[in-house]
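Table S2 (continued). Query chain:
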Amino acid sequence: MTMALAVAALTVAGVMVGVEFCVAFFVNPILDRLPGNGGLAGRADGGRVLGRVMPVWYIASLILTLALAVNHYREPGMSALIGGVALFVLSVVMSIAVLVPINNRSKNWTPKQAPDDWREQHARWDRYHYARVAVIITAFVLVAIGVIQSS
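Corresponding output:
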């Protein structure tokens, strides 16, 4: 049971981290290099699609990591797992407080009805997203360390 929980936590969190890393360092920069407003529709679609999926992914990563920490109460690896839980909580708070409001505004923008400062708003989202990616990568590493220490 514990091994299955560890595999599930690492898989769910690891794939989520990979998706968010890809969005930050590949997808959005590619969309931003499209001429004119070409990337606007891509970012809006990404905001709609990922805006539905990512909350579930973040919460699942948090719950699975919390379950691991509880499962390893007073055992080796618990401290790293608690650190992972804390960072996943921070990532959810960052998302709700800053990233989701920007995403909710931008997910329906089109070249004809986007605000004049849409590039600045996307740049702001990107800056916060880079920070969130650093947080979730660190959380994932702590979960991996916790699993290794408790094996």
